[in-house]
Amino acid sequence: MPDVAEAQNLEWIILLGCVQLQKLNPSIGSLKKLVLLNLTYCEKLVILSNTILGLNSLKYLYVRGCSIIGSNCLLDETRNTKHLISYLSPSCPLSCLCELNLSYCNLLQIPDYIGKLHCLQSLNLEGNNFVTLPNFKDLLRLYFLNLQNCKRLKYLPDLPSRTVLPSEPFTSRFPSSILKSHLTSLKFTGLMIFGCPELVEIEQLTTKSFSWTIQIIEATYQLPFPETYMPDSIMPGSQIPSLFNNEFVNGDIENLEEYLGEEYLTVDPPPVPHDNNFIGVLCCIIFCLYNIEQIPMNFGRDHMWLHYEELNMDRSRIYPCVTRIIELLGTYSSTVYVKKFQYRWVNEQDLINLKMTHCANLTAGKRKISVIEENG
């Protein structure tokens, strides 16, 4: 990498796929206007320069697929963990960081200070090897968390009890090619927990995930453009909560999965006709994946998909469900098997009530676990 000290107006550096890159030029730390740094698939990159972690204008940092960083430099040894945390100290925080992608970096642990990056909106930790995560309850601006394929993860961390979404639509001087290819936070909202076989306390995890998803939906209605941040969340689960009071049933459809994958769904009218207080439909689908080429077919673990759409009396059609699940998971070689599909019309008061109910359930679950531990 060349010396960039003279390029003081640089706002983005994209080193995507530079597989021979072993280290960054320290001069990168002088780029006070740098907003985006993409090191995705720089497979031989040995260490992140500490100067990067002092870039006060950096908003987007992508380190996906840099497995050497994960195993040898960040977290494989205690001394290296402390080394990283010393960089992420209050004296040199990534104070503007909005999006952090550390997916497939072979991380065995995530530093606690990640939970103090107060501007963080999107955090992708997919495909790593940690067992637990730090507390995320202070990340009030977080609206996307990806934990797919974290094979050793056992517990979901505490999530924010309040969500603050950007008050203005995203605007940028980046060219459209940069926006489309590199800023993934523009594409997804919600919580992704899939391919995590070691997870325990599934009931509590589902309650926590559901509550956070409802919380994001509620936050969107504080904005003049709520459709921008409507969430999709996927988590382990095989039972649809009782609050979903409408079931999608169509006896004329022989292949439900094919129909849900290709057709928009028309939902029944709201329970009170002409009631303008209804603002949308909350959908819940129980599904699993299987590979049609495997004999015998290997059906995976059941998962729950929560999806919300703004609907009204004039618009009552939902985006094809299976298509959306495949988009979210990126599982284009697998088939989605839909087991159950129910939905609920909601109004603004509904959102508040649903969140309060699930918060109460979560508190009760924690008390139950505490009693079990005390009596054990």
Automatic annotation (TrEMBL):
Family annotation (InterPro entries): Leu-rich_rpt, LRR-SigEffector_domain, LRR_dom_sf
Bilayer-crossing regions: none
Cross-referenced PANTHER family: LEUCINE-RICH REPEAT (LRR) FAMILY PROTEIN-RELATED, LEUCINE-RICH REPEAT-CONTAINING
Name of the protein in question: Disease resistance protein RML1B-like
Provenance organism: Vigna radiata var. radiata
